[in-house]
């Protein structure tokens, strides 16, 4: 009897999970599956739009070979510096959103208003708006020009790393605008930790610093991984991405090939990120066990 009840409860949970996933699956099949398959098809064809329809000519791996081996200016000379910039932006956004989420979780007057303020840029800021702010020089930190920090960075580091660092500092405020969703995720994660755990820690005489490192941070590890994945995908669509401008060109076959190469790069980057995170997590668990 108990086995049947457990089986029924397990079946109900599976059906509940399937129902929750159904809107995404249906939306993907209706709106995303065909465009993705069609773009993959076009990446192996020369596409011409004629008055009487669309003409396809099979070219095989021609566009992939051209992008990877024959004309690497876009992929290697422009994309790799952007990737360096994204790698440095990633910890900045994660750490900032984590600290803000911990602060906004405290009880103080006007907490709801401050939460809304931090999330508003996510609603109002589109890619074009961010580009316009960047073109106007908005988002800069005033002390950078006052103390000539950019020149010091250029003199201290090689041009390979100095350029991305200066770009991040010049648009630091705009970069932090991309932290709204991450702050909400960390807030939700922080509220999954039972208050009784913090009460027990206070009774044992633990300091706030010890509470953070031994309770809050370990409890937020799954949400840190979630935010790393979300932020990585979000940064790869940042308005300054040179690939996005090329994908919109009129050569549909080459643009599709470039988009798929870029997708594979993102996939590899996410896989590497997940691998490093799991190794660090296992090492941390081994150290504390």
From TrEMBL:
Classification via Gene3D superfamilies: MetI-like
PROSITE patterns named in the record: ABC_TM1
Domain ABC transmembrane type-1, residue spans: 79-281
Main location, first listed in the record: membrane
Compartments, as annotated in UniProt: Cell membrane
Claim: Transport is one of the keywords in the record: yes
Keywords: Cell membrane, Membrane, Sugar transport, Transmembrane, Transmembrane helix, Transport
InterPro entries: MetI-like, MetI-like_sf, UgpAE/MalFG_permease
Listed transmembrane segments: 21-41, 82-104, 116-134, 161-190, 211-230, 259-281
Membrane topology label: Multi-pass membrane protein
Protein family (similarity comment): Belongs to the binding-protein-dependent transport system permease family.
Record-given protein name: ABC-type sugar transport system permease subunit
Biological source species: Paenibacillus eucommiae
Lineage: Bacteria, Bacillati, Bacillota, Bacilli, Bacillales
């Amino acid at each position: 009897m108990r086995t049947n009840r457990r089986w029924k409860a397990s079946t109900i949970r599976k059906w509940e999970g399937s129902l929750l996933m159904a809107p995404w699956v249906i939306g993907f099949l209706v709106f995303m599956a065909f465009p993705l398959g069609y773009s993959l098809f076009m990446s192996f064809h020369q596409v011409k739009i004629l008055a009487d329809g669309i003409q396809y000519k099979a070219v095989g791996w021609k566009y992939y070979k051209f992008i990877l081996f024959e004309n690497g200016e876009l992929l290697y000379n422009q994309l790799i510096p952007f990737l360096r910039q994204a790698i440095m932006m990633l910890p900045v956004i994660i750490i900032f959103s984590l600290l803000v989420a911990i602060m906004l979780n405290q009880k103080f007057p006007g907490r709801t208003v401050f939460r809304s303020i931090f999330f508003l840029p996510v609603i109002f800021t589109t890619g074009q708006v961010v580009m316009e702010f960047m073109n106007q020089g908005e988002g800069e930190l005033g002390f950078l020009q006052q103390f000539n920090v950019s020149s010091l960075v250029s003199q201290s580091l090689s041009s390979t790393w100095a350029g991305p660092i200066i770009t991040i500092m010049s648009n630091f405020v705009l970069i932090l605008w991309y932290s709204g969703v991450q702050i909400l995720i960390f807030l939700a994660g922080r509220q999954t930790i039972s208050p009784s755990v913090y009460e027990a820690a206070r009774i044992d005489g633990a300091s706030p610093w010890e509470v953070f490192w031994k309770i809050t941070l370990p409890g937020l590890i799954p949400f840190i991984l979630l935010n790393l994945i979300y932020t990585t995908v979000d940064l790869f669509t940042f308005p300054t991405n040179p690939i996005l401008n090329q994908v919109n060109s009129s050569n549909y076959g080459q643009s599709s090939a470039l988009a798929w190469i870029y997708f594979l790069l993102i996939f590899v980057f996410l896989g590497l990120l997940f691998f490093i995170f799991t190794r660090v997590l296992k090492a941390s668990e081994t150290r504390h066990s």
